[in-house]
Amino acid sequence: MTPEMNITTERIDDFPLLLEVMQRLGLPAIIDNHLRRHGLHQGLSWGWIATIWLAHILCQSNPRKQPVQSWVRQAHETIERITGMKVNELDFTDDRLTLLLRRLSQPETWQAIETDLGRSILRVYELKPERVRLDATTVSGYHASGEDTLFQYGHSKDDPSLAQVKVMVAALDPLGLPLVTQVVAGNRADDPLYVPVIDRVLQIIDGVGLLFVGDCKMSALSVRVHIHHLGHHYLCPLAQTGKTGEEVVTWIQAADDGQHELQAVSIENDQGERKLLAEGYGFERLVKAEIGGEIKEWTERILVVRSESYRRVMREGLESRLQRATEELTALTPTPGRGKRQIRDEMELVKAAEEVMKAHDVQGLLSYTFERLEKRQTRYLGRGRGSPERPRQEIVTVRYQMTAIARQDDAIATLQKTFGWRAYVTNAPAEQLTLEQAVLTYRDEWLIERGFHRLKGVPLSLSPLFVKRDDQVVGLTNLLSLAVRFLTLIEFVARRKLKQNQEKLVGLIENNPKKGIDNPTTERLLKMFDNITLSIVQLPGQTIRHLPALTAVQTRILELLGLSVHVYSRLASN
Question: 20 to 30 A from 381, CA-CA: which of 161, 271, 340, 527?
């Protein structure tokens, strides 16, 4: 008689790898230390619920709560064998995950988790932080805006028509690894967010001499004096507000007049050729500011730099604006015809022309001339044929016509001399941060932007926010910021190992498997673990588990991450 046999399969893919990386950093224990269990709480702890959900998000590229329970049901055997604990799918209901997000949204709890996790990352991966980059991004959603809600209308590069929340991030350079995240209302200014975020970074990183890098909003004097007072350094562009705008014009003029020798900044391209990036000069100035009732005085350096790429972009932008303005000015006075509106008042034409030039920011760069045209028609009054004695009326129709639109070459040339220039400010000494190093350091701003793209797009897809309440928005953003950390870490560790071994990893590119690369992305590495299935055969008194042997590429990826094949092979032990 044939014994009864039951065969089940579980798609595991990169889930064991992700869970192992999180366990290595002690993520479940860190979260459990700050999310205490209620006395009536049954099942998995909050730390394990968050860790498994996080691995599911990275594995499935889906941050929504609804599919987690069914996924846990189909991966039940795998999760239990990895964690060594009894897993119930009811630990991952929508209500349970909602409660987790609510608790992760509490500021004190979240800051404590971030601090412990940040210290663990620095210790486990032996990172020696020198630079921290700060920046903010916005996340839009189809949410109602209100006075006391996070979702507010504000400046947005994504979709200004939607309400948004703002996420302030401090990331470790050159990894782009988030250390601190803060979620605030979408209409909040960036300036007041820097100081508290910097203070939270310093709870994670001990010592002095860190270099904080940010955009022009970080150049507020209150932020600079705070960083200097704590014994650290800053590097950021100066915001051209107040007197600074006039000073920058003077500094640019000094460079144009040859008062300073310009230092070239260049890099080597793939062909071994040196490419000019920028040129500029620096000088020192004394700064005074008050902090805590005490007047602080220190020396900072102003770096006046002209970027070649920025200069080219500004030239192209000006040319485009001039062209569009010329076309629109010409279109103000079309030739007469059906449906073609004519301007019949001189002041109306002048006003319309000025509005066009203002809209394209070319005032003073274009000049125009126009003429007044009259068309006279005689019309007979009353009935009958025309005769010398018949009353008549002369109708005069006036319209204005653009005759010439000219570029003001001298004004354009003067403006173009200012293109590409930007003033940076730093309190780091020249022997520690040269002008070339400062330019190259700020140029790496894409590092933190890459984390933003991962957070808002594939694979984490925070936008357009599939949760409604403010606490859920904050909690989900915080949770996904943990996912960004793990994506960044996996990529960093693999690349560091490849660089140490002077090795290139082959087999990652589907259409060119023989090509080796030494800078693989986490997404490309994890994709190599697609379609790994654990088969479970249940016989009377016996359970047989089978897992396909890992490929050479999969095994090498595990080795680069400091993991062994046991991460997968243990699932097939009978």
Answer: 340
